[in-house]
Amino acid sequence: MQLDTKLIHGGPLLDKYTGSSSVPIYQASTFHQSQFAESQEFTYTRFGNPTRQALEETIACLEFAKYGYAFSSGMAAISAVLLNFSHGDHVVLCKDIYGGAYQLVTEMFPKYGIEYTFVDETDLSTWEKAIKENTKGFYIETPSNPLLTITDIKGVVKLAKQHNILTIIDNTFMTPIYQNPIKLGVDIVIHSATKFINGHSDVTAGLVVTSDEEIAKTIYKTQKMFGSMLDPYDCWLVLRGIKTMNIRMEKEVENAAFIAKELQKQRKVKAVYYPSLANHKGKDVHFAQASSGGAVLTFDLGSYENVKTFFENVTFPIVAVSLGGVESILSYPFTMSHAVIPEKERLDLGVTEGLIRLSCGIEDKHDLLNDLIKALDHVKSESCQKKRVI
Ligand SMILES: Cc1ncc(COP(=O)(O)O)c(C=O)c1O
User: Fold this and answer.
1) pLDDT tens-digit profile of 161-203?
2) Which family does it belong to (predicted)?
3) Phi and psi (nearest 5°) for 46?
4) Atom of ligand 1 nearest to the CA of 205
5) Is 98 a catalytic residue?
């Protein structure tokens, strides 16, 4: 089955009880048990719900996995996976990582006696050097948020297999459309479905998939114990979003590739980070494991003042936390997605005060570009320092 067909027919399209053309929202917390002492498919929504099951089967199919689970947010999904490490375990993670995941690791792991090390994700030797006797997990995010750095997924997986280490990836930026980590040997794939998968900035959701039965049992039990499952209405919205994901993303990626190239030509833009740009550091590795540069790019205006002027003069993109909507979204990682990282570490990571992240929507690319250029016109030229070579 080709991708476009899979997006419509990969999971259950029809309701098996009525044949309705969209799986209904089974808005029920519990289910009548005619044989009260016997188990049945659905008993209580925290344990399972037909609308959620449809979404879980769909994401498993799209990610070439056997099992899928839907959570109330990307962070709920990340927590369900990472909080299954145990006292004395050690986990190695990318240093350029989503701020919420960073906070979870640095604040919760010590409470549970779980050790962690952040490494330069772009250098395989740093993953190897970080391995200790008690290393149990590798956590990848590629392309990373917000600098779009690239990790060699196959390289990390190979290393992990040699040392019996579990591999986990946050695949939010690429979506199942452009990167399928299970096929590359990764054990657990996580998504913030709040972003491209739902795609309309009206739901928070998280997804986890795996093909390993034991891992699947653990994830299911955690979803049930934490009570962090996605509710039926939001499952239905995400299912609806998935049907148009490919055509939405095609346009969003086209816009991002165009804008990234055009912004590179602008004197007031110090640097542009986008995986398909010729000078992007991880470009070759990225295109060996993914089929698109994605719809997110980051650029540097050099200072807070320049960002302020730029944001005050931009019209079409909304300025907001998040990405992956049909509307273009500008974010300021320094005080938004990465604010929870202590300032010195943030700056060391390259999350500076001049950095802007743009998630391209489906608007006309020339309208978008003209709007960005118009806002750039207001930024004072002398306040932009010399162009940096990435
Ligand atoms: C890469 C990435 N992973 C995970 C998350 C967390 O997802 P959520 O906000 O749905 O909890 C985000 C949110 O911005 C993200 O960008």
Assistant:
1) 999 999 999 999 999 999 999 999 999 999 999 999 999 999 9
2) Belongs to the trans-sulfuration enzymes family.
3) -65, -30
4) 10
5) yes
Distances (CA, A) of 339 to 172, 342, 347, 351: 20, 7, 11, 10
Confirm whether 210 is domain-assigned: yes
Ligand 1 centroid distance, CA of 383 (Å): 33
Beta carbon of 73 within 6 Å of any ligand 1 atom? yes
Question: Are 180 and 32 found together in one domain?
Answer: yes
Distance CA(359)–CA(297), nearest Å, equals 7
Residues present in the chain in total: 390
Which numbered atom of ligand 1 lies nearest the CA of 193? 10
In three-state secondary structure terms, 36 is coil
Give every residue of the chain whose pLDDT is below 70, as ranges.
Answer: 382-390
In the chain, the number of structural domains is: 2
Q: How many CA atoms are closer than 13 Å to the CA of 6, on its beta-carbon side?
A: 15
* Domain carrying residue 344: 245-383
CATH assignment at residue 254: 3.90.1150.10
11 with 125, same domain: the answer is yes
**CATH code of the domain containing 61:** 3.40.640.10
Give the helix, strand, coil percentages of the chain, each rounded to 5.
40, 15, 45
Q: Which strands, in side-by-side order, build the sheet including 271-273?
A: 271-273, 296-300, 355-359, 329-331, 318-319
* Residue with token string 């049992």: 217
